[in-house]
From TrEMBL:
Major site of localization recorded for this protein: membrane
Keywords: Cell outer membrane, Membrane, Signal, Transmembrane, Transmembrane beta strand, Transport
Pfam family, one: OEP
Signal peptide annotation: 1-18
Protein name listed in UniProt: TolC family protein
The species this protein was found in: Aequorivita marisscotiae
Record carries keyword S-adenosyl-L-methionine: no
Top-rank taxon: Bacteria
Family: Belongs to the outer membrane factor (OMF) (TC 1.B.17) family.
Subcellular location: Cell outer membrane
Length: 420
């Protein structure tokens, strides 16, 4: 018993893999998760965090070490002699080393504004990646339903082969007892070989389509993989929820944040500074010796007139916002046209399927009568095969229209944004 359980647990993963089944939604998730572009989400966030850290470092004091040695052709001299005083002019060779510290005290919120801009840029860039990943859904649809079509056609051909095998057994019995001519058996065998050939061809075509889907999903899919036929509900009253719409909004937000950064750039900047040094001469130019010295103070920088540069930059951003607005309008118009086309396809295939149902019902009745005639020997095998082919051609047409209807619904939901 233990040995049996060990074997059962050992082959369980193999059996699970052999019976692998995928749904359309699972394919969407796998495609977006495994597509190389998806890695940019984390990379963009990491890049932005680094850029924000760089901005935050502007708040820290800046330390500079400076040193210089100079020789000059002339120095300051006093033209008059001061009684009881000897003023020695500075040396022509001079030396100085200083440590300078500058601390930002106020910059009008420029760093905070730039931080908000970086955050807005990150949101826009990540949403652009989301838009690019969303387009994968259309590619998944084409590959998924292509595989599904071959899968369903194979089922129909196998069903047809089973039907043909039953008739062949009956004819074999008739030939054995001399009730049916051997030619009838040969006709059915030839049709059987033809069917096996078609099934083999479909298997190769399905394998090729499955490989394309596997590459898109970055998954190992084999011939045992089965795709579920999705039951897709279409709700036309739901508003468009495409990720492009959010991208347009984020682009406008980014442009508004850029205007704020431009405004902040003209605010006054107040800095505190300190300098400690050692040199000859020091701060006292009349003392010809090496001295240490220091200096502390405040510095104010304010660009009070920029020749209209800020105004022009803001006007440029306003024009960019209008461009984004026109792109949004264009997208909505084109998307609405695609929705109408998809709705038309859904309506077309719905009506075609109603006719398919009627055609199949009639063909089944004809085949039922033809089968009885074949069993009674009143018609040839060729006549039976003709009606059998007519029935299964109608069933294949119905299956094709079902797949096309599901594809049209899936495309409609992608166009509408229902698979977000």
């Amino acid at each position: 018993m233990k040995k049996f359980l060990f074997i059962l647990f050992a082959i369980a993963p193999i059996l699970a893999f052999a019976q692998q089944k995928l749904t359309l939604e699972e394919c969407y998730v796998l495609a977006e998760k495994n597509y190389p572009l998806a890695k940019q989400m984390a990379l963009l966030e990491e890049k932005t965090n680094s850029e924000i850290k760089v901005l935050e470092k502007e708040k820290l004091p800046k330390l500079d070490l400076n040193a210089q040695a100079t020789y000059q052709s002339d120095v300051i001299e006093f033209p008059l002699q001061i009684p009881n005083s000897t003023v020695i002019p500075p040396n022509k060779d001079q030396y100085r080393a200083t440590l300078d510290a500058n601390q930002l005290i106020y910059n009008g919120g420029n760093i905070a504004a730039n931080t908000r801009l970086k955050t807005a840029q990150l949101a826009t860039q990540q949403q652009q990646v989301a838009v690019n990943l969303y387009t994968l859904k259309s590619r998944v649809n084409q590959n998924y339903f292509n595989v599904l079509l071959f899968q369903e056609r194979e089922k129909l051909l196998l069903s047809k082969l089973e039907e043909l095998d039953s008739r062949l057994k009956e004819v074999n019995t008739g030939v054995k007892y001399g009730a049916v001519l051997p030619a009838s058996e040969q006709v059915l065998k030839a049709e059987q070989l033809k069917l096996e050939q078609q099934i083999s061809q479909i298997n190769f075509d399905r394998k090729k389509a499955l490989n394309n889907l596997a590459l898109l999903l970055s998954q190992n899919l084999n011939s045992n993989t089965t795709l579920a036929n999705p039951d897709i509900l279409v709700a036309q009253e739901i508003e468009t929820q495409r990720p492009e719409l959010e991208l347009f909004d984020l682009q406008e937000t980014q442009l508004e944040t850029s205007k704020e950064v431009i405004s902040k750039s003209n605010f006054p900047k107040l800095l505190g500074f300190a300098q400690a040094g050692y040199g000859n001469p020091g701060l006292n130019m009349l003392d010809n010796s090496f001295q240490d010295f220091y200096m502390v103070g405040l510095k104010l920088h304010w660009n009070i007139f920029d020749w209209g540069k800020t105004k022009e930059q803001k006007q440029t951003l306003d024009i960019s916002k209008e461009i984004v607005s026109t792109e949004k309008e264009t997208f909505l118009l084109n998307n609405q046209m695609r929705q109408k086309e998809a709705e038309n396809d859904i309506e077309k295939y719905d009506k075609m399927l109603l006719k398919d149902t009627q055609i199949i019902a009639l063909r089944e009745k004809v085949l039922e009568a033809t089968t009885s005639q074949l069993q009674n020997g009143t018609i040839t095998s060729s006549e039976y095969i003709t009606e059998l082919n007519n029935l299964y051609e109608a069933k294949i047409d119905e299956q094709l229209h079902k797949i096309q209807l599901s594809l049209a619904k899936a495309n409609y939901k992608v166009i509408k944004g229902g698979f977000n």
